[in-house]
Amino acid sequence: MDNSTKIAIIGTGFSGLGMAIKLKEAGYDDFVILEQSDDIGGTWHENHYPGCACDVQSALYSFSFEQNPNWTRMFAPQPEIKAYLKHCAEKYGLTDHIRLNTHLTGARYDERRQRWTLETCDSPALWQYMQDKGVKPGDELDRSDEALPACERFEAQVVVSGMGGLSTPAYPDIKGIETFTGKAFHSQDWDHDYDFKGKRVAVIGTGASAIQFVPEVAKDAAHLDLYQRTPPWIMPKPDREITPLERMMFRKVPQTLNALRSSIYWFLEARVLGFVGNPRILKLGELQARRHIRSQIKDKELRKKVTPDFHFGCKRVLISNNYYPALDQDHVDVLTDGIREVRGNVIVDRNGVEREVDCIIYGTGFKAQDPIPKGMIFGRDGQDLLAAWQDGAEAYKGTAVAGFPNLFLLMGPNTGLGHSSMVFMIESQVQYVLDAVKKMDRQDWATVEVKAGSQSQYNASLQAKLGDSVWQTGCQSWYVNENGKNTTLWAGFTWQFRQQTRRFDAEQYLCESAEVAIDVTDAVPA
C-alpha cells in the first residue's frame, strides 16, 4: 500500500463499494478500500449462516444504477447478494483499489498536517492474536502488548467509513459462559464444519438472524433449546421463485424491472405512516402477525410464549414462513426463564433447571449502540469518537461529526430503517459525500468539519420527530439507548432523507484551506 492516498474507504459492503463506484465515475482514482476480511461483500460475506437471506425484496435491495435482472427469488439469499457485490466491484474496476485482509486498528486526525493517519494490520495475524488473548471483536486493543502484530501506517485526506451500524457482534453477559466446554460460536462466525446431527444445541437469542438459522439447525439437531428473552413480531414472508421467463423479461425489457422496483419502493414507503405518523395503523399488521402464529403453531402454550406483549413495530418486524413450524416440534423447546449461569457443558436457568448441551449458538445480534469500537477513531485534540458519543451516537445527516474533519460515515447514526431498503439511504449519503469531495477540490479546501451547532440543531429536530413514533412509545428496543435516545433510525420517509442529502451544504461546515479556517455563508453556490 502507498503511504498516502486522497480518500480511504473502510469496508466493501454496499456502502464502501457504492462510494468507490461514484468516485471512480467522477474521475477520482486516488483512493483505497480497506477490507478486514478475505473477500469483499461486507455483512453479506461475514454472515453466511444457513438460511441467511435479505428481508427486503431483491429488486429494491440493489444499486439503482446497477439493477440485477438475474435474482432467482423475490428475497435474495446471501450467496446471490455477495455474488452481486463482487460483480459490481469487477464491473466498475474496483479490484485494484481493494486491500483484503487489512484490518483498520486506528485512525487519528493530525491537526497540524490536516490529514488522517490510518494504522492497519494483517487481519489473519490480528485475529490469531485476539483468539490467543481471548479478545472479542469490538474490544479495545492493548497497544502496550509486545505480542500485538506489527501494523503499517499511511495517510489520507478524507476517510469514508462504510463499516455499518451492525458490524460488531454482541455477546451475552452470562456467568461462566467463557468456561463452556462444548462448541460455541456467534451467528456471524458460523462453523460450517460442525455437524449438528445427534447434538444437543442451545440457541441464545431470537432476532433476525436466529429466525433464519433456527429452522435449518432444527433439521439436524437431536434436540434444540431456544432461549428467548423477548419474542419478535413475525409476518408471513411473501417470497417465491422469480421464474426464468420473468428474468428474461427483466433482461430484455429493463423498464419492467424498473416498474417492479418502483412499486416495491412506494409500497414499503407507506409503512412510515404507521411507524411515525399514526401508530394505530400498525394494528392491522399486528392482527396479521397474530393470525400467522395461530395458523402455524398448534400448541397453545407455545403460542403464548411466542406472542409479543409490546406494540407491533416497536422492535424490528421480522418475516418468516418456517420459523414457527420449526419451534412446534417435539425436539425443540422454547425456554423463557432466562439463564443464570453456565457450568461446563450445562446451562442453568434462573429456576435452577440444568440442561446439558453440546453446542451454543449466539443469535444475539450486534452492538448497535457502539457501532465503532473504542480506541478506533480519534479526531481533534485526540478525542475518541466513542467518547464524543458518550450520551449516544449522533451525526449531522447521519454522515458528519463535529470535531472529526474530513470523516464521513455511511449508514451512520439515525440512518437505519424499519421499513425499506438501506441501499436507498446509502446512495443518498454517497451523493452527499461525493458532492463534498468535489466542492473541497473546487474551493481548494483542505478540510470540512460540520459545526457543532449545526449538528446539535439537526439532531434536536430529528429526536423531536422520533418522540411520538412507535419506536419511542411502544417498548424498549436496541434502537434506543439506556438514556432513551434513538440513535439508529431515520424519522420519516426515505425520499425526505434524499432531499436533505442531494447537495453538500457547506454553510453548515467550517471549511479550512491550508491551515486557514473559513466560515462559509449561505452564499456558497450549490
Explain what this protein looks like in three dimensions.
By secondary structure, the protein is of the alpha/beta class. It has two domains: 299 residues, FAD/NAD(P)-binding domain; 149 residues, FAD/NAD(P)-binding domain. Helix content is 31%, strand content 18%. A hairpin with a 4-residue loop joins strand 14 and strand 15. The longest helix is centred in the C-terminal third of the chain and has 22 residues. The relative contact order is 0.14. The C terminus is likely disordered.
Mean pLDDT: 92
Q: How much helical structure, as a percent, in the residues?
A: 25-40%
Structural class: alpha/beta
Largest sheet, in brief, is:
8 strands, mixed
CATH class of the largest domain: Alpha Beta
Content of β-strand: 15-25%
Shape: globular
What's the name of the CATH homologous superfamily of the largest domain? FAD/NAD(P)-binding domain
Q: Which fold name corresponds to the CATH topology of the largest domain?
A: FAD/NAD(P)-binding domain
Topology at a glance:
Blueprint: E1 4-10, H1 14-25, E2 31-34, H2 43-46, H3 78-91, E3 98-99, E4 102-110, E5 115-122, H4 123-133, E6 151-161, E7 183-186, E8 200-204, H5 210-220, E9 223-227, E10 234-235, H6 244-252, H7 254-269, H8 272-277, H9 283-296, H10 300-306, E11 318-319, H11 323-327, E12 332-335, E13 339-343, E14 346-349, E15 354-356, E16 359-362, E17 377-378, H12 385-388, E18 407-409, H13 422-443, E19 447-450, H14 452-466, H15 470-473, H16 494-500, E20 509-513, E21 516-519
Helix pairs in contact: 1-13, 6-7, 13-16
